[in-house]
Amino acid sequence: MPQNNPYKSKVFRKIVSLAGEAIHDYAMISDHDRLLVGVSGGKDSLMLMHVLTYLQHRAPVSFELVPVCFDPGFPGFNIDGTRKYFAMQGWKLEVIEFDVETVLKEKHFEQQPCVLCSRLRRGWLYGRADKLSCGKIALGHHLDDICVSLLMCMFRGHGIKTMPPNTAADASSKRLIRPLAYVPEALLQEAVEIFALPLSGECIYKEQLEASGDRAFFGSMLKDLEQRIPHVRQCMLRSMKDIRLEFLLDEKFLDLSFGVELEQTGHRF
């Protein structure tokens, strides 16, 4: 059951503190911003709404929130539960309905559903942001998501990169921000009962993705690493904020002038 005032719980205060720190560090929100908040119906995006609503009444800048939910049309997806929860909070929710399963089958993407689904959701959110005059889109990705994305890219040879907290989107016409970038998933999970968050339903491809998907595999790896390295997420966060280009292998960032001089004199390996 929810507490009488969940906003006073230690868990929520910690989440807000970390979110406020990330928002400040990466200049995510400015005065008079109009934010489209991407709502999946899961715990992360619902807590993002609570955090942003809380900060909206306490931040030194004024900003608006426009929550938009993407309904994939999956059987059992609890869009009604999400609508009721938003109504209870006094939040106005706009819903985008789209039959994702049919499109995945038509495009033969059943084996890689996340690839096409993410493109569809992103395209719809960009379009709706334009329609609603929102210059920024806030997403509920948390610290675990960012750490897992880094591992996925590194091990799949896609470069040393991850989900940036504040980045250009849609040909730089708007910004994508991730206010929960410093918040570990475990804290958000603790908040589920405190805020009596509704269950959103599950993706119909969940079992397939958990069995063979990269995100599930590297998420499990992150948990295994924590057994060896306590606070591994925070350690990875510190490393991602301490990039030392001269100690990596990208020639663009290395001083190879000495090697050029040797080559010019005929001395080379």
List keywords for this structure.
269 residues, alpha/beta, Rossmann fold, six-stranded mixed β-sheet, 6 strands, 48% helix, 12% strand, globular
Question: How would you describe this structure to a colleague?
Answer:
The chain has a six-stranded mixed β-sheet with strand order 3-2-1-4-6-5, sandwiched between helices. By secondary structure, the chain is of the alpha/beta class. Helix 1 packs across helix 7. It is built from eleven helices and six strands. The mean pLDDT is 90. The longest helix has 19 residues, at 113-131.
Strand order of the largest sheet: 3-2-1-4-6-5
Measured distance between first and last alpha carbons: 70 Å
Report the sheet with the most strands, covering strand number, pairing sense and barrel closure: 6 strands, mixed
Secondary structure tally: strands? 6
Percent in strands: 5-15%
CATH architecture: 3-Layer(aba) Sandwich
The gyration radius over C-alpha positions equals 21 Å
Query: What is the count of structural domains?
Result: 1
* Number of helices in the DSSP assignment: 11
In the CATH scheme, the class would be Alpha Beta
Give the rounded overall mean pLDDT: 90
Could you give the topology of this structure?
Elements: H1 10-25, E1 33-39, H2 43-56, E2 63-71, H3 79-89, E3 94-97, H4 100-106, H5 113-131, E4 136-138, H6 143-155, E5 166-169, E6 174-177, H7 185-194, H8 206-212, H9 214-228, H10 232-240, H11 257-264
Parallel strand pairs: 1-2, 1-4, 2-3, 4-6
Antiparallel strand pairs: 5-6
Helix pairs in contact: 1-7, 6-9, 8-9
